Automatic annotation (TrEMBL):
Domain DUF5921 intervals: 448-525
Entry superkingdom: Eukaryota
GO cellular component: transcription factor TFIIIC complex
Matching InterPro entries: DUF5921, GTF3C4, TFIIIC_delta_N, TFIIIC_Znf, WD40_repeat_dom_sf
Any one GO molecular-function label of the UniProt entry: histone acetyltransferase activity
SUPFAM superfamilies: WD40 repeat-like
Domain Transcription factor IIIC putative zinc-finger: 668-718
Entry protein name: TF3C4 factor
Gene source species: Sylvia borin (Garden warbler)
Length: 751
């Protein structure tokens, strides 16, 4: 179980990776959590590692299978790495591990998914067109080809390898390319000098792959990652750890210098940090030599490792907290760089579980660690700093009080720490195990509404999409109480008055939209069901024709009922959602006040949307002014945007007036209007959402550049707020940069 930074939960199963995307839906009045579900299917064919020419490999396999030495034949026949197809054995189909990249790695600025199958195929997938997952690259195949070309030697100075017909050599070639774990690093930003001596920022990300023999392959990808052509380099590091089991990145910032390394754990117990020497990445620093965090071979396998960056309140500097699950214990290590060098404090937290820890997750915002064992017990560990190192306060989260008697198989915490996702199956009933296992993903709330609202108001991220788990708690509270709490309304108004950031305006718009939905009555009948009445009307006789946007829900919309620690136990309720429509109260006494209240909220929503539109128009005009010459046609309706901003007499923004004055002076009375592609008539700029020519042709406007989208294909915001056009090859770089932006109303990405 893994939870990405863009609020998608991946669940590795025998048939596929189920991806559950959490949405804070502003168009639905239901109080349940809204989840969109997609899947990455398992490959249909088995993965065979490349250890030599096909003919020679087939001969060696036949030789080992028919060997008279039972230590060779039995080891060969029972090893599923050598025999992924299985023959008489059960097929090795499905996924055993998945890992999410940081936000901003794919073409849409979202997270990539690295998936490791049961038969050792490592692939990278992206969700590019909202509904379908696409495999971008097969790293197992690429790494096998690299080893084949290098004659299975890591460097030229290595001794020549043996013959493939020798069973130890056959094993060595498989173990050096059998992935055990893979983890993503943070995004590295470097400056690249172009031919005209201009500098541009180039982003890259690293993927570390731990192999069975202890080697680590570090892949460097240029962003956005599009496929094989985006691979910059691949370096192999020897860790020297036998029987490696788990991997994690150590990333530390000291005096504005970022240092990195790889934390590797062994099935025998040791844990150490390996230096990562990458000369190709500028501004990248690492350790001079490996650092051993735990060296005892105590036969306690390292199951999971998490590295949490924290601030030390006593030492007044940043530090790293490394936690590792070792059997039923939690091993912790505090790393701190001072003038004396690297300080290492380590210890174990005991008495947490009576069974081995099967899953561990960490909230990187406050350092809270969660562990679980199969008996349904989840522990919360809160680090508390002392003068020397730190200590942990831990408390038990009894899932049996919420879900009943269950067994737990995995946990993951949401990016902002609002939810805990738990994989459960039925526990023992009357001392008997269940006949069938039904695996469910349950969601437990970890924060109250007040804590979520305070975190949103004081957020340093200032992006609603990156805090969906927090906004979902706020959404649930408003829909339940049918009003915005007074303390939240007053605090938000103070924030808007003091700093005026558009983030707080978007937060206000979100609250008003949810309040509007809470005032509506639920429909008596689902809206998607077709009517059986034949109601036909002539188009010429219809009283009015208006343009309606297609708000059809994309993907499969699922609802999972939220669980809180104080509620009674409920399972995950999965039902199709239907969009609520406007229904006035049937009570004649309360109809008019309800209508007036809805109209008042609608007017506030339109006022906030207009404010956000004007602020984005100012940004677009600023880009136009900075990147155009005198009397240049930019393809953006600059004159129309200027006239639209100045058309409201009540809008008095000195910054906008000065900017418009400079732009009009640069345009030198030129208008450069847009023309309808069907009839060549002028498209006036009278509406921010659509353009209508004199012949009645209607084109929707791009909310990022305010150009008319005169094509049949365009992009749409995740929450269906707005539409945007696709970038074209003739667009300059600054327009392409504008088109990469998120929605101006809800911060959601655009597809």
């Amino acid at each position: 179980l893994a939870w990405s930074e863009d609020h998608r939960v991946s669940v590795s199963t025998a048939r596929s990776i189920a991806v559950l995307e959490q949405l804070s839906d502003v168009h639905s009045g239901g109080q349940d959590m809204v989840i969109h579900r997609t899947a990455v299917p398992a490959p249909a064919t088995a993965c065979t590692l490349k250890v030599g020419p096909k003919k020679e490999v087939a001969e060696c396999k036949e030789k080992f299978a028919s060997s008279v030495d039972p230590t060779v034949s039995q080891m060969f026949m029972l090893d599923r790495v050598f025999n992924p197809e299985g023959k008489s054995l059960t097929p090795m189909r499905g996924f055993k591990y998945s890992s999410w990249s940081p936000l901003g790695c794919d073409a849409n600025g979202r997270c990539l998914l690295a998936a490791l199958t049961m038969d050792n195929r490592l692939t990278i997938h992206a969700n590019l067109n909202r509904l379908q997952w696409v495999q971008l690259v097969d790293l197992t195949e690429l790494y096998g080809e690299r080893l084949f070309e290098a004659s299975y030697k890591l460097c030229k100075a290595d001794t020549p390898c043996g013959e493939l017909g020798d069973f130890p050599e056959f094993q060595r070639r498989h173990s050096m390319q059998t992935p055990v774990r893979m983890e993503w690093s943070g995004i590295c930003t470097t400056q690249q000098v172009k031919h005209n001596n201009e500098c541009r920022d180039v982003g890259s990300v690293l993927l570390a792959v731990l192999f069975e023999n202890g080697n680590i392959a570090v892949w460097q990808f240029q962003l956005p990652f599009l496929g094989k052509e985006s691979i910059t380099s691949c370096n192999t590091i020897e860790s020297g750890i036998s029987s490696p089991s788990v991997l994690s990145w150590w990333e530390y910032e000291h005096n504005n210098r970022k240092m990195s390394g790889l934390i590797v754990g062994s099935a025998y117990g040791p844990v150490k940090i390996i230096p990562v020497n990458l000369k190709a990445v500028k501004g990248y620093f690492t350790l001079r030599q490996p650092v051993v965090l735990w060296q005892e071979m105590d036969q306690l396998p390292v199951h999971s490792i998490k590295c949490i960056p924290l601030y030390h309140p006593y030492q007044k500097c940043s530090c790293s907290l490394v936690v590792a699950a070792r059997g039923p214990y939690v091993f912790w290590c505090l790393l701190l760089i001072s003038k004396a060098g690297l300080n290492v404090h380590n210890s174990h937290v005991t008495g947490l579980h009576s069974l081995p820890i099967v899953s561990m997750t960490a909230d990187k915002q406050n350092g809270t660690v969660y562990t679980c064992s199969t008996d349904g017990k989840v522990r919360q560990l809160i680090p508390i700093f002392t003068d020397v190192a730190l200590k942990f306060e831990h408390q038990l989260i009894k899932l049996s009080e919420v879900f009943g008697c269950v067994r737990t198989h995995g946990i993951a915490v949401s990016p902002c720490g609002a939810y805990l996702a738990v994989i459960t199956t039925e526990g023992m009933v009357n001392g008997l195990h269940p006949v069938n296992k039904n695996y469910q993903v349950q969601f437990v709330t970890l924060k109250t509404f007040e804590e979520a609202a305070a975190q949103l108001l004081e957020s340093s991220v200032q992006n609603l999409f990156r805090q969906v788990d927090l906004t979902d708690l706020v959404r649930w509270k408003i829909l339940k109480d049918k009003h915005i709490p007074q303390f939240l309304q007053e605090a938000l108004d103070k924030k808007i008055e003091s700093c005026g950031s558009t983030y707080f305006w978007r937060f206000k718009l979100f609250l008003l939209r949810i309040l509007y939905q809470s005032m509506q009555k639920a429909p008596s009948e689902v809206t998607w069901r077709p009517s059986h009445e034949d109601a036909k009307i002539l188009i010429s006789d219809s009283p009015g024709m208006g343009s309606t946007e297609d708000d059809q829900e994309e993907g499969t919309s699922k609802q999972a009922s939220k669980q809180s620690l104080g509620d009674s136990g409920k399972g995950v309720d999965i039902d199709d959602t239907a969009e609520d429509s406007l229904h006035q109260s049937s009570d004649t006494g309360g109809r008019e006040p309800m209508v007036e209240k809805l109209l008042e909220i609608q007017a506030q929503i339109e006022a906030v949307e207009m404010h956000l539109t004007r602020e984005h128009m100012k940004r677009v005009l600023g880009e136009v002014y900075l990147h155009t010459w005198i009397t240049e046609n930019t393809s953006i309706p600059t004159r129309g945007v200027c006239d639209f901003l100045m058309s409201d007499d009540g809008y008095d923004d000195r910054t906008a007036r000065v900017l418009i004055g400079h732009i009009l002076k640069k345009m030198n009375k030129q208008t450069f209007p847009e023309h309808c592609s069907l009839c060549k008539e002028i498209l006036p700029f009278t509406d921010r959402k659509q353009a209508v020519c004199s012949n009645g042709h209607i084109w929707l406007r791009c909310f990022l550049t305010y150009q008319s989208c005169q094509s049949l294909v365009y992009r749409r915001c995740l929450l269906h707020d707005s539409i945007a056009r696709h970038p074209t090859p003739e667009d300059p770089e600054w327009i392409k940069r504008l088109l990469q932006g998120p929605c101006t109303f809800c911060d959601s990405p655009v597809f």
